[in-house]
Amino acid sequence: MRIKIFIIVIIIFMLPVWAFFIEPNLLFVKHYRIKNENLAGIRIVFAADFHLRSHQEYRLKQTIKKINAQKPDILLLGGDFIDGISLKKSFSLPQTALYLSKINAPYGVYSVVGNHEYWSGDIDLKKILLKHGITVLSNENTPINIKGKKLYIAGIEDSFSSEPDIDKAFKNSGQNVIVLTHSPDIFPKVPDSVILTLAGHTHGGQIRIPFYGALFIPSEFGKRYAEGLIVEGSKKMIVTRGIGTSTIHIRFNCPPEIVVIDFE
To answer: Bridge partners of 252?
Structure first.
């Protein structure tokens, strides 16, 4: 009986230690294979929701190292680089952009703006990232000639904090379109012709209870777009759990991740 009580006490003690100090500092690589002959052989790495605090330079360096190890053709970023809405408590955005510029993605690095960048006030994220060779897409698209194929990345503004304009984002785009956005809530309005939509924002809920799932998802659709690969009809979307944390800096049963997508 004493042994059982001792084990229970240890578990109760270790749970907050794990949730506050261990799991948030992990970083997994989640792999997906998407069948699409038009883009076969292309590898995309997708990362979002960095939420870097002022002391997390080492965390950023390790993230860059792990992304480079995946040897992406293209890197896509889903926004929310800062922590909360306070720039004083966040890691320097220009420094973040400088580190991101060290990623070896031969066909480019592209990003959208997250809600925390909007909420923090006067941040010219587009200017800061562009200075370091990172293209920010705001309701617009860009063509990429890659391995003898033509791909379009359409960046749609965050539906949670800004004004998404799908028609504008798709203007003059051709076939083979991948949508990059911060919040997954835009997914029902994305055209069926889109190959893949990539989103973040939800963090997978950060706290996921076994057999129940996430306690809270910041989405008007509840758990429907919480995380992972979502298929609705002919459309596909991948929602990443993200890298950092928001509001409360804990994770449980929902470790941080970057996403690797191989088309075949």
So the answer is: 207
- Cα torsion 190, 194, 198, 202 to 10°: value is 30
Q: Kindly list the structural domains of the chain, giving each domain's residue range(s) and its CATH number in brackets, ordered by start.
A: 2-263 (3.60.21.10)
What 3-state class would DSSP assign to 46?
Answer: strand
Q: Based on C-alpha coordinates, what's the Rg of the chain?
A: 19
Question: Does the global pTM surpass 0.90?
Answer: yes
Q: Please, are residues 76 and 44 in contact by the beta-carbon 8 Å criterion?
A: yes
Structural contact between residues 170 and 177, judged by C-beta atoms closer than 8 angstroms: yes
Helices (H), the chain: 2-17, 57-69, 93-100, 115-119, 125-130, 166-169
Q: Residues 78, 201: contact at Cβ < 8 Å?
A: yes
Nearest CA to 45 out of 104, 2, 102, 95 is that of 104
The pLDDT tens digits of the residues spanning 86-111 come to: 777 899 999 999 999 999 999 999 99
Show the CA angle centred on residue 29, arms to residues 107 and 169, nearest 5°. Answer: 45
Contact 218, 174 (CB under 8 A): no
